[in-house]
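Reminder: ligand-aware prediction takes two inputs, not one.
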Amino acid sequence: MDLFMFMFLLDCAHAHLFSFFLFLPTTYRAAHPKYNTKKAAPFLLHQQTMDHILHAVGWFVRTPETPQGSAKLLSIPLSHYCEKARWALDLSPFRNTYVEEAHAPVFHIKPAISLTNKRSATSAPILVLSGNSASDPPTIIQDSAEILAHLAKTFPAELGHLYPPGEEGNRVRALEQELGKRLGPQSRKLVYWAMWQARQEGLATVNPLLEAHLPKAEAMLWNLGEGKILPRMMQVMNIDAASVVTALYDCRQVFKEASAMLAGDGEGEGQGEQRKYLLGGERMTAADLTLAALAYPLVKPPAFVSLGLSGPSASPWTTKLADLSAEFRATPAGQHVLRLYAEERFPAGEETSRLCLRTVDCNKMPWQ
Ligand SMILES: N[C@@H](CCC(=O)N[C@@H](CS)C(=O)NCC(=O)O)C(=O)O
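Here is what comes back for the chain with glutathione:
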């Protein structure tokens, strides 16, 4: 047993013996109106028990600073909404300076609440932008579409093309929103379902490539508790055999519609002609980026080899997505996603064939 494990068990023992004294601050927080809403830590255990566990994990996890003059992305590394925000950051002038604070699902809740100050606002991604000077408060932006819009406004030279002016921009925003509501939750259902099927066959869902980006305490507890955590998360997200059938239908429908757009159907420039981008035009827009990011788990572009999602060292559970990937890749929309990942995922001239998560070492001991 290493020192880390020893400390963790000691902490849990304390939690049982002296919970009132040790967790007085946590108990206070749970009772505080700012934190105490019904949506708090909506799954898993009794809310206060959950608070204690997340609090104890926090003792072993360092919160990375937001680099001065740059940004920090709070993420769940495999989340496709987080990938959407990461894509925009990788195209922005922050690309070499921002840091990613990655957490395992559920363990993201506490750090998210400390950023948003709202118990109900726990969804990732959250972007933290440093103030102009070290004493200025940071700007916090939650929601992938908000993050894209903010970065595009801040960096028009690098990202302005994501939202073209006028009517075209309105069409881009409408399609981005629609994809966020339709494709996002439904492709996520298919992925969690595949993960769960694999898990029931005893296949691991965390691999060393992904684990390297997570704080050790979170990876360890996820591995220990996954059998209980996953079903509860699925319950909250309404994922079961029946809803997965609908999710597959909806994803197929979105791909069909996107393929038709690329063939020149619907509104936008280049009606009736084969298009390079969903709404026509000469540059990728936020609609294309959103389709590609939210569809990545279905299409599995080669760039995800670095997270153990594709390629020869892919996590065993991803075999459960093989048939889906083959089906979605074969469509014009799937080909579009693959092309965007191959050609537009990183700034032109910076040939990068794989994702690089800019995480930093967040492991610490409670006294550090
Ligand atoms: N509309 C949001 C959706 C984000 C979202 O659903 N994030 C998921 C990860 S894929 C999440 O953080 N879920 C856990 C939670 O809400 O606490 C966005 O575009 O950022």
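Residues 54 and 110 are 7 Å apart (CA to CA). Strands lie at 71-75, 99-102, 126-129, 139-142. We will return to this case in the review session.
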